[in-house]
């Protein structure tokens, strides 16, 4: 924040007062806001991709278009076409003894929603929650990551141009600003980021009893079964891992595979990288590591694992002078190594061999619940067994990543990978108070249970208690 700018509290108060004055916005207002967001992204697509590339050092426009612009726009279009139905009260059944009363759930905006955005998909992880919060009729204050300063500056300019200042506000700044932001008395706070910062955010929100949705990270496994089409599994895992150079919350973090298939995986992955990113060192379609700190962190994770006995299999050459890390498989890993204890968030992929699918399941279940889980097998029974026996935020079967792109599925974690969910109608509900309403009928029987308690009351009570 610079001198002369209103304080965070003032900006929050402005949104809160506007919401109190304006009440719940009607369908037309919500649609206008969603269309403003759509126009903002559509008209400034190239500038947005440029800003993100500047922040990352190297990020292809194609990746930003495919992984950020497309899901953002498609989420907005989905909301626009379903909003009228989402806003309707939902009829519920009144209990038998209360008939002919009627009950309903009535969606109402919560008020002012806070959104804290990480650096890895700065547009999509801002526009996604923003879409749901605006659809639900809220005003929004959004904090971008200090690691994407060019994008943050651009977004605040664009939002100021496309929205009223009491509709949506973008806040930029460092961790001190993020801390102060998390302490504001929002009506709901959605945080996307690491599990450790998520804990701090929840603590700050607790002081004001602000409800939170925490979209966190963790180690998401990919399990390859004996009945998997190996070449297909390898290509989808390698692709899911290398999009955005592995800096994706739901990227496969490690692979559990039958011991006999380890060498075939290494050979297949090398071939897949050659196909997907030919001449990787000079290939502009392979993303860089977003900051020097994360680049060093990844090099240290890899080197420490090797020093402790792991073997690194580089699948291609990376340019020596850029903040780029070559796709690398790690074998011979174990739980002493940080690479098996921390979320990797980069293009390193440990292979963990197993001797039976039960062993693979036990391995997953001995660790915190992952944000995503991938299972590759063409035998239905094996897939069902893995689905039933493990708990994860979301799953793709015989693919990676794509469950996040389903507007009809909620997206979120469980346990250490997060709480709550959003996307589509589930996001609309997250940012709405689904207010229960009981409507008494003019003629009803509840008076029969009034005191003083006499014979009629006792008869009625016998009926109520079932004899
Ligand atoms: P991070 O936790 O370091 O930072 C996230 C955001 O929190 C940033 O905007 C930062 O400014 C802010 N922040 C930092 N300290 C804070 C504090 N004390 N109080 C309030 N806010 C604070 O995460 P990151 O490095 O930006 O992103 C990577 C992590 O995010 C990974 O763990 C990844 O798995 C996770 N992630 C999760 C999802 C999801 O949808 N579940 C999506 C993307 C990334």
TrEMBL record:
The keyword Metal-binding does not apply. Residues 1-19 have a biased composition (Basic and acidic residues). It holds the Pfam family Aldedh. Residues 25-436 form the Aldehyde dehydrogenase domain. InterPro entries: Ald_DH/histidinol_DH, Ald_DH_C, Ald_DH_CS_CYS, Ald_DH_CS_GLU, Ald_DH_N, Aldehyde_DH_dom, Aldehyde_DH_NAD(P). One of its GO terms (molecular function) is aldehyde dehydrogenase (NAD+) activity. It comes from the Bacteria. Residues 1-24 are annotated as: Disordered. The active site is at residues 215, 249. GO terms for biological process: aldehyde metabolic process. Keywords: Coiled coil, NAD, Oxidoreductase. SUPFAM superfamilies: ALDH-like. One of its GO terms (cellular component) is cytoplasm. Residues 27-54 form a coiled coil. Belongs to the aldehyde dehydrogenase family. This is Aldehyde dehydrogenase. It comes from Dokdonella fugitiva.
């Amino acid at each position: 924040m610079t001198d002369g700018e209103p304080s965070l509290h003032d900006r929050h108060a402005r949104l809160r007062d506007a919401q109190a004055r304006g009440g719940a916005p009607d369908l037309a207002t919500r649609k206008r806001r969603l269309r403003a967001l759509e126009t903002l992204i559509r008209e400034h697509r190239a500038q947005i991709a440029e800003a993100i590339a500047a922040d990352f050092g190297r990020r292809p426009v194609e990746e930003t278009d495919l992984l950020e612009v497309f899901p953002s726009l498609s989420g907005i279009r989905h909301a626009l076409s379903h909003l009228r139905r989402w806003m309707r009260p939902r009829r519920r059944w009144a209990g038998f003894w209360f008939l002919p009363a009627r009950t309903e759930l009535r969606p109402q905006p919560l008020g002012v929603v806070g959104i804290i955005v990480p650096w890895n998909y700065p547009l999509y992880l801002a526009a996604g929650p923003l879409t749901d919060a605006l659809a639900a009729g809220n005003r929004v204050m959004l904090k971008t990551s200090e690691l994407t300063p060019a994008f943050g500056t651009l977004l605040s300019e664009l939002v100021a141009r496309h929205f009223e200042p009491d509709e949506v506000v973008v806040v930029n700044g460092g961790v001190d600003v993020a801390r102060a932001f998390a302490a504001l008395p929002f009506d709901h706070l959605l945080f996307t980021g690491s599990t450790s910062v998520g804990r701090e955010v929840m603590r700050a929100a607790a002081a004001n009893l602000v409800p939170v949705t925490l979209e966190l990270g963790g180690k998401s496994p990919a399990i390859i079964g004996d009945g998997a089409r190996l070449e297909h599994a390898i290509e989808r895992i390698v692709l899911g891992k290398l999009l955005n150079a592995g800096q994706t919350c739901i990227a496969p973090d490690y692979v559990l595979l039958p011991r006999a298939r380890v060498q075939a995986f290494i050979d297949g992955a090398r071939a897949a990288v050659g196909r997907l990113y030919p001449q990787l060192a000079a290939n502009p379609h392979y993303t860089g590591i977003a900051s020097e700190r994360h680049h060093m962190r990844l090099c240290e994770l890899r080197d420490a694992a090797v020093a402790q006995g792991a073997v690194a299999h580089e699948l291609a050459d990376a340019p020596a002078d850029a903040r780029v890390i070559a796709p690398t498989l790690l074998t011979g890993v174990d739980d002493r190594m940080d690479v098996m204890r921390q979320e990797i968030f980069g293009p390193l992929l440990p292979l963990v061999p197993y001797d039976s699918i039960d062993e693979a399941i036990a391995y997953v279940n001995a660790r915190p619940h992952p944000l995503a889980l991938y299972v590759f097998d063409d035998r239905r029974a094996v897939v069902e067994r893995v689905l039933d026996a493990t708990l994860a935020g979301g799953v793709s079967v015989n693919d990676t990543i794509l469950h996040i792109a389903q507007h009809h599925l909620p997206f979120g974690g469980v346990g250490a990978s997060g709480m709550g969910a959003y996307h589509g109608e589930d996001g609309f509900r997250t940012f709405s108070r689904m207010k229960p309403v009981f409507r008494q009928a003019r003629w009803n029987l509840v008076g029969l249970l009034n005191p003083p308690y006499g014979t009629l009351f006792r008869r009625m009570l016998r009926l109520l208690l079932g004899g």
